[in-house]
Design goal:
251 residues, alpha/beta, Rossmann fold, 8 helices, 42% helix, globular
């Protein structure tokens, strides 16, 4: 019987790439996101790979919506083997004294509270079955702090701490917990951070070869496909041209 993976933030970037990679390895998928049209397009792509797909359109920031969607899954979708907490974003880049509280709340509510809401809905089933794998997409921003990254870095540091705590909490229940922390990945990330400013977003990836979403999707499949006695606790992945959050070799 094929395993089931639930992916949050599946409508673009790493989430979409992970869905396609896992489907290519014959996993059935629950894909979630805020954009119904993109979910439908992705569902069609995935079903071409001969897997079953369930789409759920909700915002992970909405606790009631999370509970409604994940608390009322059809019977055949309730045994979630892999939870990929991928939904996340950066909003704004500036010093703390000039910060926009709307941006702050958006990051805290998505990167931290959304991850918690979804995990709280899914983890009890894993505990009951004594089986499962939770994968949190962190960031190099959860390992170090960089100028003007304050709140984003704080949320990703929280993800780092939560992942360690989850690993401890899930240990008696035979559940794997992994964090994958990318460096620079060229997706919609910077476009979202800079509120749609295309020219500013493009500068982030100029002068070197960044990672792409498929690179992280490969890492996700690697940790998922390890033998049952092997857990990858933590993985930091950067482009060859990046040594830290701020240090790049650009041509």
């Amino acid at each position: 019987m094929s395993k089931i993976a639930l992916i949050t933030g599946a409508t673009s970037g790493i989430g979409e790439a992970a869905a396609l990679t896992l489907a290519g390895n014959k996993m059935n998928l629950i894909i979630t996101g805020r954009r119904h049209d993109r979910l439908s397009i992705l569902k069609n792509k995935l079903e071409e790979r001969n897997v079953r797909v369930l789409t759920l359109c909700f915002d992970v920031r909405d606790e009631l919506a999370v509970k409604e969607a994940l608390g009322n899954l059809p019977e055949e979708w309730r045994q979630i083997d892999v939870l990929l907490n991928n939904a996340g974003l950066a909003a704004g880049l500036g010093p703390i004294q000039e910060g926009d509280s709307d941006d702050w709340n958006r990051m805290i509510d998505t990167n931290l509270k959304g991850l918690l809401y979804v995990t709280r809905a899914v983890a009890p089933g894993m505990v009951e079955r004594k089986s499962g794998h939770i994968i949190n997409i962190g960031s190099v921003a959860g390992k170090e702090v960089y100028p003007n990254g304050n709140i984003y870095c704080a949320t990703k540091h929280a993800v780092d701490a939560l992942t360690k705590a989850m690993r401890i909490d899930m240990l008696p229940h035979n559940i794997k917990v992994t964090q994958i922390c990318p460096g620079a990945v060229e997706t919609e990330f910077s476009l979202v951070r800079f509120h749609g400013d295309q020219s500013r977003a493009e500068i982030v990836y100029k002068g070197y070869e960044s990672l792409v979403a498929d690179d992280i999707a490969d890492c996700i499949w690697f940790v998922v496909s390890r033998p049952s006695h092997v857990n990858i606790n933590d993985m930091v992945v950067m482009p060859t041209a990046q040594a830290s959050a701020t240090l790049f070799h650009k041509e």
